[in-house]
Write a structure and sequence with these properties.
It is an enzyme of class 3 (hydrolase). This protein is α/β, with parallel strands linked by helices. 35% of the residues lie in helices and 14% in strands. The chain has two domains: 1-21 and 379-393, no CATH class; 23-370, Glycosidases (TIM Barrel), CATH 3.20.20.
Length: 393
């Protein structure tokens, strides 16, 4: 009997070692000259259970490689091409060439038009964004694809003029002329509002006053919003709820907020406080555990938090600070940047163990975080029984 139960436990554990246990997305950036081919990346994502990926373009190599993979894709339309989409004919042409051509094999579910447009300094681009989104949506309608594909755009948290406390969240007043039409579009089409949320940046800017445990999802005293009396145990939830408040302040409700980017760099320059392997491991590991609970924020507890982690790979050609090139969960060779308890492989390569050098020195591991709590209890009970049986014999 003990042998049978032991075999059962091993079977269950083997089935949980190579998946994240939660439908989480990943940002698949390619600003690098040393990344594996898309064909090999397919195997990596499948082996660790990734179900959703977000591109910053509509790279035909990637879209072809991921045909029949079962992975959902958000394709991107770069800021450089937003102006072209204000021409309805060009919008139809773009959708035909970059979306329709890959359906139904490649599961494209959304088109992200532009990225962080409203925190730039290009007024013309800001003015063109909503008309471009409207034309891309109209192109989907004309092709009979609007029911399956959303049109959206991702924003930096810099669009907020007030973010604390979350109940007082408000957009910068000068952006309301752009954001009101955008929110009208989301309301009419049922598409989500995307925010790139990085507690890391808030901590880096004020490490003396922002508790590190609060931004890393570690046990902490939390903070109570004096306006709503809601308690926040982590900054990510506070950032998201400040966006919900800002949307409500403009008179809009029932528009879902999704996290299009969040992550933590594993390396940084000397002035980039907190950019370490250990903090990156803790942030992303605890983030995955939080998402596995399938709960919302304090302000929207029943609304699941759709999230895309940034990013899949370290990208060696990204400009700027060292941190910009070190957000990846994986190195270009397919080995992990740090240990998250994952086991997978690039297509065409041997399985790699995701207990890499650079793991947190405190020995924080997340292998069991992705096993439902009830299953953990069951396994512990079975193991206790097995030990008792073996001791008898």
């Amino acid at each position: 009997m003990a042998a049978i139960l032991l075999a059962f436990v091993l079977f269950l554990l083997s089935g949980t070692s190579n998946v994240w246990g939660v439908v989480v997305g990943i940002n698949y950036g390619q600003i690098a000259d040393n990344l594996p081919s898309p064909e090999r990346v397919v195997g990596l994502l499948q082996s660790i259970g990734i179900k959703k990926a977000k591109l910053y373009d509509a790279d035909p190599r990637v879209l072809k490689a991921f045909a029949n993979s079962g992975i959902e894709f958000v394709v991107g339309l770069d800021n450089l091409y937003v102006a072209n989409m204000t021409d309805p004919a060009k919008a139809v042409e773009w959708v035909k060439e970059n979306v329709e051509a890959y359906l139904p094999g490649t599961n494209i579910t959304s088109i992200a038009v532009g990225n962080e447009v409203y925190t730039g300094n290009d007024t013309e681009l800001m003015e063109n964004l909503v008309p471009a989104m409207q034309n891309v949506h109209a192109a989907l309608v004309s092709l009979g694809l609007e029911g399956a594909i959303n049109v959206l755009t991702a924003h930096s948290s810099g669009i907020l003029g007030t973010s604390y406390p979350p109940s007082a969240g408000a957009f910068k007043p000068e952006l309301s002329v752009f954001l009101s039409p955008l929110l009208d579009f989301h309301k009419q089409t049922g598409s989500p509002f995307l925010i790139n949320a990085y507690p890391y940046f808030a901590y880096k800017a004020d490490p003396n006053n922002i508790p590190l445990d609060y931004v890393l999802f570690q046990p902490n005293e939390g903070q109570v919003d004096s306006g709503s009396n809601l308690r926040y145990n982590n900054m990510l939830h506070a950032q998201i709820d400040s966006v919900y408040s800002a949307i409500s302040a403009l008179g809009y409700e029932n528009i879902q907020v999704q996290v299009s980017e969040t992550g933590w760099p594993s390396q940084g320059d000397s002035d980039e406080v907190g950019a370490t392997f250990e903090n990156a491991q803790i942030y992303n590991g605890n983030l995955l555990r939080l998402l596995a609970q399938n709960q919302g924020t304090p302000m929207r507890p029943s609304v699941s938090l759709d999230t895309y982690v940034f990013a899949l790979f370290n990208e060696n050609l990204k400009p700027g600070k060292t941190s910009e090139r070190n957000y990846g969960l994986f190195k270009p060779d397919g080995t992990p940047a740090y240990d998250l308890g994952l086991h997978g492989s690039l297509s065409g390569s041997n399985t790699v163990s995701y207990a890499a050098a650079g793991a947190a020195s405190k020995g924080t591991h997340y292998h069991m975080f992705f096993v439902p709590l009830c299953l953990q209890v069951l396994l512990l009970c079975i193991c206790s029984f097995i030990l008792g049986e073996l001791l008898i014999y």
